[in-house]
Amino acid sequence: MIDTLDLHFLGAPRAIAAFLVRGPAGPVLIETGPGSTLPALLAGLAQRGVAPEQVQDVLVTHIHLDHAGAAGWWARQGARIHVHAIGAPHLADPSRLLLSARRIYGDQMDALWGDVLPAPVERLRPTTDGAVIEAGGLRFVAHDTPGHARHHLVYQLDDVAFVGDLGGVRRRGRPLVRLPTPPPEFDLPAWSASVARMRALSFRRIYLTHFDAVAEAAAHWDVVTELLPQYVGLVKTALEAGQDRDAILAEMTAWEGRRLAADGIPPGEWPVYASLGPAGMSVDGLLRYWQKQGQAAG
Ligand SMILES: [Zn+2]
Predict the structure, then answer these.
(1) What residues sit around ligand 1, an ion, with C-beta below 5 angstroms?
(2) Is residue 147 included in any domain, yes or no?
(3) What is the domain count for the chain?
(4) What gap in Å lies between CA 104 and CA 283, rounded to an integer?
(5) Which of 28, 171, 263, 297 sits CB 3.0–4.6 Å from 14 for a disulfide?
(6) Is the entire prediction scored with pTM above 0.90?
(7) How far is the CA of 33 from the centre of ligand 1 (A)?
(8) Mind listing the pLDDT tens digit for each residue in 234-266?
């Protein structure tokens, strides 16, 4: 009933997924991927006999471009877009979203993400914690799960869940788990609390957008819980040692490199991991986090 669609982001397999859920009353799409992979998404749906106009409901875990960049296109097709209430205005008017993405990706923006079309407001379904979404004859429950972003939702379907980036990046067949910690909203205590809440729901299986199903959900949540303070601690220690951004970035890159090597990830695949969370972006998110902590303390 759940099909993982590989969007072949930048030509790489197992980087960005969308999920096709076939309900008794029609297909439901979880995540849209970016505009740049829309042809791959439509081809994947066509292979499974699904025409775009059959998709009446699209659920996005959050509004980052790798998850919801094509949401506007689907809204213009007439689909309802279910999205966190805080994120919804940015799908209607993506200008701020694009501005902050351009700060990270610069002149790579268009090649990476393709078109980002504004969604007609009347197609948006702003969603909050505990909301029940009836789609395709199925009942999805939305869980407010901040940490990676303030506007992040996990969608539960019976005893499985689509967890967006809350579970980080773990490509199918690879042991390595990486956590993208983007500015401006990365929040360590919020992320840890969200993981604890989801862990307590004992899902039988979780679906990571990057990439695919993880059957050992509890063990995976444990890895995320252990990793979070390592990311935060690396930057804290470096800041206390008086290092500047360049030095911290070099340290983060070296640490991630050691982890990639330790897990036996072939060097040819390292750029795929970088494309799903550039080290510079993660460092900036962590620096921003510590800056906010400092302001709160001072
Ligand atoms: Zn993502």
Answers:
(1) 66, 165
(2) yes
(3) 1
(4) 11
(5) 171
(6) yes
(7) 9
(8) 999 999 999 999 999 999 999 999 999 999 999
